[in-house]
Specification:
mainly alpha; ARM repeat  fold; Leucine-rich Repeat Variant; 2 domains; 13 helices; 65% helix; 0% strand; globular; DNA_alkylation; ARM-type_fold; DNA alkylation repair protein
Length: 215
């Protein structure tokens, strides 16, 4: 793993680094490797050194690095192996959600890793959804609201609406945005159901605007 870290750092771009750090409000350090570049570099590394054998162990080490691109790289690796993981990996995903959380990592974790994992192990949904939506961590609550983002017609709309209702009074921007986003996504498949929910609930202006954006 250390070879991978050094390989990425050797290709740092100082100009892109400044731009990326400013975009993220200078909350995180960056190497300056945008997604297309980062993915090409990783493919080059794998071609020469081989793919890491344990994506979870490697992701844990990558998340411990300073620069933000290593979090993205960890999520990329885990995404490729999402269908290979055992049920208990959900606890690791939960840990990643609350590690240096911001929308850039949490949204990928929620919609791709957690969402994909719950498709494989739907028996986990009740326990973890309840823990996250009833807790006080906004990023876990956002994960609960967003994990069905790619479920399309298979969305459990009762669960989605119940999750939204739990946090309707929140003044957190990232929660209001998540509610609107999740409803907007489901509205692509059940527009009238979403419209009825929006009209019958006191959503924040942001959530309402996002939910009805394409209706």
């Amino acid at each position: 793993m250390e070879d991978l870290v050094q390989y990425m750092r050797a290709h740092a771009d100082s100009e892109e680094k400044r731009a990326m750090e400013q975009y993220m409000r200078n909350q995180f350090a960056f190497l300056g490797l945008r997604s297309p570049v980062r993915r090409v570099l990783y493919r080059e590394f794998v071609a020469e050194h081989g793919k890491p054998l344990d994506s979870v162990a490697t992701a844990r080490e990558l998340y411990a690095q300073t620069e933000r691109e290593f979090c993205y790289l960890a999520i990329d690796m885990l995404t490729k192996d999402v269908k290979k993981q055992s049920a208990d990996v959900i606890d690791f995903y939960e840990q990643l959600v609350v590690t240096e959380p911001w929308w850039d990592t949490v949204d990928l974790l929620a919609s791709t890793l957690v969402g994909g994992h719950f498709r494989l192990y739907p028996e986990l949904i009740s326990e973890y959804n309840a823990k996250w939506i009833d807790g006080d961590n906004i990023w876990l609550a956002r994960t609960a609201i967003l994990f069905q983002l790619k479920y399309k017609e298979a969305t459990d709309f009762n669960l989605l609406f119940a999750n939204c209702e739990k946090w309707l009074d929140s003044d957190e921007f990232f929660i209001q945005k998540a509610i609107g986003w999740a409803l907007r996504q489901y509205a692509k498949f059940e527009p009238e159901v979403v419209r009825e929910f929006v009209e019958s609930h006191a959503l924040s202006p942001l959530s309402r605007r996002e939910a009805l954006k394409h209706l």
